[in-house]
Amino acid sequence: MPKIFSGSSLQDLSQKIADHLGLEPGKVVTKKFSNQETCVEIGESVRGEDVYIGQSGCGEINDNLVELLIMINACKIASASWVTAVILCFPYARQDKKDKSRAPISAKLVASP
């Protein structure tokens, strides 16, 4: 059975998806340190599991993106079989090509596995 986790920006939608599939959403604890660094803890085993993580690229874009990247990394190092990010409103999509010399292609950086 797949595991469904949610970043802080999509908790309601992830709950509805899990309910529709007859699954319990995965346990995740997200907090901020006093210096505003994000801390994410996956609260259950994902070893050998297919994991889906829902997060939005809207609102606090950089915070949501960092939270998603930390969640993906946490699942990878916990030996998840496959990790799929379900991203509503892909962040940095406007920066998908080089418009000036020495300009980064930020969309490619965000999309890299």
TrEMBL record:
One GO CC annotation: cytoplasm
Alphabetical list of InterPro entries matching this protein: Pribosyltran_N, PRTase-like, Rib-P_diPkinase
Keywords associated with the record: ATP-binding, Kinase, Magnesium, Metal-binding, Nucleotide biosynthesis, Nucleotide-binding, Transferase
Enzyme class: transferase
Pfam families, per the entry: Pribosyltran_N
Highest rank taxon of the organism: Eukaryota
Metal-binding in keyword set: yes
EC number(s) stated in the UniProt entry for this protein: 2.7.6.1
Gene Ontology BP term (one): purine nucleotide biosynthetic process
MF GO annotations: ATP binding; kinase activity; magnesium ion binding; ribose phosphate diphosphokinase activity
UniProt keyword Transferase, yes or no: yes
Cofactor(s), names only, from the UniProt record: Mg(2+)
Similarity comment: Belongs to the ribose-phosphate pyrophosphokinase family.
Name the UniProt record assigns to this protein: ribose-phosphate diphosphokinase
Species this protein is from: Ovis ammon polii
